[in-house]
Amino acid sequence: MSSLTLIGAHRAVSELLENRPKSWDVVRFKGLFQRLDRRNVDLTYEMLSLRSTGEIVARAEMGGRQEPDEASLPKYLIAEIDDLVVNPMWLIGGGIGVSRRAGAVSPDYRVFRSRGALLPRFVHQLLRSQPYLDQYLLYTRAQTTFDRRVQQPDLDNLPLPVPPLEEQRVIAEYLDRETARIDTLIEEQQRLIEMLSERRVAKVAETLEGHERTQVRRLVDHDRPMTYGILQCGEPIDGGVVYIGPSDIQGEGLSPYRYALRTTAPEIASAYRRSVLKGGDVVVSIGPAYGKVAVVSDDLDGANLTQDTVRLALRPDLVDTRFFVWALLSRQTAEYWDYQIMGATFRRLNLGTLARTPIPLPAIHEQRRIAEYLDEQTAKIDTLIAEAERFIELSRERRSALITEAVTGQIDVRGAA
Question: Considering the entire predicted model, what is its pTM?
Fold first, then answer.
């Protein structure tokens, strides 16, 4: 295949193919794979589905999937062990992989069988490597989820590097071994994150134990009672009044940024003067996305709320704001809310339940000390979690790079132990 052919439509993989080892061929996809069209007419094959990880699993393991109607079941494609399964609508998300089990897959998929020049494990790693994922993206011409399939002529003309079979075997074994090592390290860090997250929750809960409690409503300024906000905010208005909804509340007490908030018309906001915000107010999400907490920054004076958020104007003589945030985010509060909405058809927190929520109430100076302590202790844990997350990110990048280097011949793995 000439250099000119590789460049252009295949620019995501062209440079890698130009620099391949001299003993490696380059062959188009259609020269290596035969498309199959065997249907599960007698319904004897197990129903399978393709994950974005490239793993092909029993459909029942996917969970939450709408079951196909009986009329479509005989149309399902049969895939045998070592067949290549492709989801053309989700190739850019990793919808491609070699099957390790026999079964029936969606008729929207495509099933291919190697013509004999490729080892299945090598194919799996090659077609899931980053340059090829990038190439699938270049092939997509539509922007919507249901109309971005990679067309078969593009896939047919996709150039693939083809090492000698023995070298394919060595590469596949090398990648099996090395990716397993990386995956083990990633799993260890994921378990560490889980442990640290549990420790964080426990630290907050333990620190807040042993104090008398009072209801949230008793800590609120009587002149500015608890209230939810605007029922129908309407279309955004340039220069309108900004408002806070559940989706705007992200961190533990952090205020949303003004520039990121939506707006409502002044005449709509004026009908909800009761829920106007001031700097220092606490906002809590209720409804189905309940339990998120923000402390309003001073630059949001005059902002408003949606109907699924509640304003709490706390009494500074009774409760420290930061302490109050920790109390609302504690395991004790979460358990109280779970108990209150247990058995409900739709899990929603309402204004009344929030008002009755019990909150620990030591002396105000003790509240400030506890809040400072929890800020300090959770920050230490958060730093460890961030380090573990960074390790996982780097490990995944290394895993991806290693696969690319091996399947394109950038590194010679034949002497690797």
Answer: 0.84
